């Protein structure tokens, strides 16, 4: 690890200046007002932010398949940006296979996760096609065999005197896979629960990023954390309240549309995705009694809200309070390697990973939140799995379920029916 740090300090990873320290004149400029360069950067960031938001609305209109492809593209680009930083250090030792093995492990992990998703969400299609049924049956064994092949390739690539560095980079690859690929898989799962679980969390993170930047730019005076010297308490607090209000309003608008609230399901008859259902109670207006202090302040006794709006407060609060820690983590990572951004993909914003460092943490939280407080048993999936069983297995389950319901008193006893 010591030799990696020494060589890493010499390796020309990127040429952007470090944000660690600024000159006294720059500090004076920040105190007196924004410089021309800062205003120019503000406009560049603003214009490109609007362009990215417009592109986001476009892919939402194009539907869940396009969203899945965009998530996959973002995942690959983020992985490439992080691996490139490690490769810049590793390549100086002329050691073999690091980049090749990194991309191979990315392929293996994606095969595993997307195979699990296909089996879960396209169950009837998988059972209908013989090759897919075989791949589904032995999916985890195939995934393990693929990973084992890469593991053996890594062991064979070990070079004397550089074992520590090679194991360090092996860990680098796997941590990157954990951060990027696993959490991208969570985004896909959130999407299938309903596009509102995909759009609202992502929009809250974007809103918090924009509003925290604006409040910090115009009102920021008090530093928030040393890892990000430009982050201020004023921006943090302003972004928090703005994001909560935004999340409640966006949830109200989207909860009235089936396209956004219905789970994304595969229609076996038409062989395509469909987003159509009877909205659950989460997306039906209900009356809520206001607390006394709010009643005296607003003059209202009750208010009509979608239950999802209550959940949106938790989502937007996490996006504002805990979400930035994904950015702080990324800032610490970049400072460790003395780089400003992960890449130069987006002018004024840096790389794709610079824009999605908070999104991955948010996606994990949403997935955990749904599993803990929202998701219940899905009868349609249970029925699909039952229909895939042999007839004798179906009859066994039917008789067991009938006996259970009869014992509980929900069905008349067989003797009563015969009488």
TrEMBL record:
It comes from the Eukaryota. This is Uncharacterized protein. It comes from Chaenocephalus aceratus.
